[in-house]
Design goal:
Chain lengths: 158, 421
């Protein structure tokens, strides 16, 4: 259940590791880059490549915040809910995002475009509030900025 | 106290970092040349020891001493850079990672040489996409130029350096959790002893140092231990930061031991108009609150400890009078409860409990005895009850909030809800 490309990338990663399991987190990230998330089938295929049992690998996969074991939307919004962003207006931004997207934290829009997730400190506290959409960091957020970002991302400018 | 800023000298706000030739033109890789050409590994270790450099990740352990615990043998060893930086309110290593990647690479080669490690790993948190891109670029340049790989500059020393980008979990910042993560396991802590210097990654001697700590090393090699000690009364500089409702949130490289008040007033520009200072966590989420009476406290390891807190990461989170201290601590404890790895019972069970009680107070369901319950909880979460420092760290902002803002906790009970809402 891995594409040739995923398999090639994981094998290229394995070369750098004396012990294959050292590559398992990177391998999961490779699958996720291609598919958006890690299904049971993908996980089983990765487990075989890195020499772990399925349960051993799932034990690892479910520990890390950024390995998704359920499907997500086309774009994933990670809104920082840690202390500096909380002081600087996280709650307002969360409400605005929820209203604009019509979803709560942890949900995906009906059209599958956006998934909204709370995320721990993004390490950009001097520009709070902040969020990451896909791999782009957005800072000093306010309502108008959020609207503009959503518009841009939806139009493929992200 | 000469105003030198070695760590950030090559960093210009808003500009791309120096590439290899720019870094070399600015004096880069001279320290590596000197270390490999004229110094033995123990010379390097000794000058770092003599400089008094202490870990900048939060614990403040003397770096040279840490290195000296590595057994002298021909067995494979590792040097690992802890660039996980997931402490809420902390963003200092980001500047060094994004702003001067070659400085960190040079630092790691020299530090690897000192402990005779031939393998290095930079453990980077997932959120730092820009840093990852720039580090990959810089690593490729350093390999091409022969600063990395076999027989570096004809010295006979081999050093390979890899980047590992985490999949995200606060526990990865704990050094033994980090090592488990590199082994493709859950980032749970390991029993110490054995310490990683003796048995670390894959059971081999391993040193884990913070980004900022490592970045000091090339400058100490170039300029000597006395120069380093002369940078401040306490030795060296420190990256200080401030976030919250100050006029100019940001980061500044200042002499170690600059006072809390000077950082907040002169560098962060004081509070934004109409807002009053009430307190601050001096070094990230897991440090005790300091208040107005502590503005003269020098932000060095010993002085902050004497004031009842910890220097931690040196990035200050400011509490103002329009922000609820109970709400702030509720936010922190929710973070710690969520990021607890679940390995130790007090942390796994105690933190969600503390977070729940704080939420109840915020929502107006609190009782007076909850405040004492929280204080008792802090003692149970304290040092000695868990494998790692997550739970004791989580107790610090809570116990000090109860100490300094007890009236505010009580108002949540008497007014049946949060007075700030």
């Amino acid at each position: 259940m891995l594409s040739d490309e995923e398999r090639r990338e994981i094998e290229a990663e394995l070369v750098h590791h004396e012990y294959p399991r050292g590559a398992c987190i990177e391998a999961l990230k490779i699958v996720q880059r291609h598919r958006g998330w890690v299904s049971d089938e993908s996980l089983a295929a990765v487990a075989e490549l890195v020499g772990m049992t399925v349960d051993e690998l799932d034990n690892v996969a479910t520990f890390y915040n950024l390995i998704f074991r359920s499907p997500v939307g086309e774009h994933v919004i990670l809104l920082c809910d840690s202390v500096s962003c909380w002081i600087m207006g996280y709650e307002r931004i969360r409400q605005h995002l929820s209203e604009r997207l019509g979803i709560e934290m942890g949900q995906t829009t009906a059209d599958g475009t956006f998934t909204l997730l709370p995320m721990v400190c993004l390490g950009d506290c001097d520009h709070a509030p902040t969020m990451i959409v896909d791999e782009t960091l957005y800072r000093n957020l306010d309502e108008a900025k959020v609207d503009e970002i959503l518009r841009q991302v939806q139009n493929g400018a992200s | 106290m000469n105003g030198e800023r070695p760590l950030t000298q090559n960093i210009r706000a808003g500009e791309a970092p120096l590439d290899l030739s720019g870094y070399e033109a600015a004096g880069g890789y001279q320290a590596l040349r000197r270390a490999l050409g004229n110094m033995s590994p123990s010379d390097v270790l000794n000058v770092v020891k003599e400089s008094g450099l202490k870990g900048r990740g939060g614990a403040g352990f003397p770096t040279g001493l840490k290195w000296s615990f590595v057994p002298q043998s021909n067995a494979p060893k590792y040097i690992v850079c802890n660039g996980d930086e997931m402490e809420p309110g902390t963003f200092k290593d980001r500047l060094l990672l994004e702003g001067d990647p070659h400085q960190l690479i040079e630092a790691m080669i020299i530090s690897g040489y000192a402990i005779q490690a031939n393998e290095g790993i930079i453990f980077l948190r997932w959120a730092y996409h820009t840093a990852a891109r720039r580090l990959r670029q810089a690593l490729a340049e350093a390999y091409d130029a022969g600063y990395l790989g076999a027989n570096i500059m004809g010295s006979g020393f081999d050093f390979r350096l890899q980047l590992h980008v985490s999949a995200g979990r606060y526990m990865c910042g704990e050094e033994t959790g980090l090592l488990n993560s590199l082994e493709g396991r859950r980032a749970i802590p390991r029993t110490k002893p054995p310490y990683p210097q003796v048995s670390g990654l894959w059971g081999r001697p391993t040193v884990v140092n913070n980004v900022e700590t490592l970045c000091n090393v090339p400058h100490i090699i170039n300029n000597g231990a006395d120069w380093y000690k002369g940078l401040s009364a306490e030795g060296g500089t420190k990256l200080y930061g401030a976030s919250g409702k100050v006029k100019r949130p940001g980061l500044w490289e200042l002499p170690l031991g600059t006072t809390l008040g000077e950082i907040l007033e002169e560098h962060a520009g004081g509070m934004i108009d109409g807002v009053r200072f009430r307190g601050a966590l001096p070094g990230g989420a897991s440090t005790d609150f300091l208040t107005e009476q502590h503005l003269d406290v020098k932000m060095d390891f010993d002085s902050v400890q004497k004031a009842g807190s910890r220097l931690g990461t040196g990035t200050i989170i400011v509490l103002d009078d329009q922000t609820c201290p109970v709400g702030m601590v509720a936010n922190l404890e929710k973070f710690f409860a969520q990021e607890s790895c679940g390995w130790c019972t007090p942390c796994r069970e105690g933190l969600p409990w503390a977070a729940k009680v704080l939420r109840a107070l915020e929502e107006g369901h609190g009782q007076m005895r909850d405040i004492d319950l929280l204080a008792q909880q802090c003692r149970l979460l304290g040092p000695g009850h868990t494998f790692c420092a997550l739970a004791p760290g989580a107790a610090e902002p809570l116990q000090s909030a109860i100490k300094y803002f007890r009236d505010d906790f009580e108002r949540h009970v008497t007014e049946k809800g949060c007075p700030w809402r």
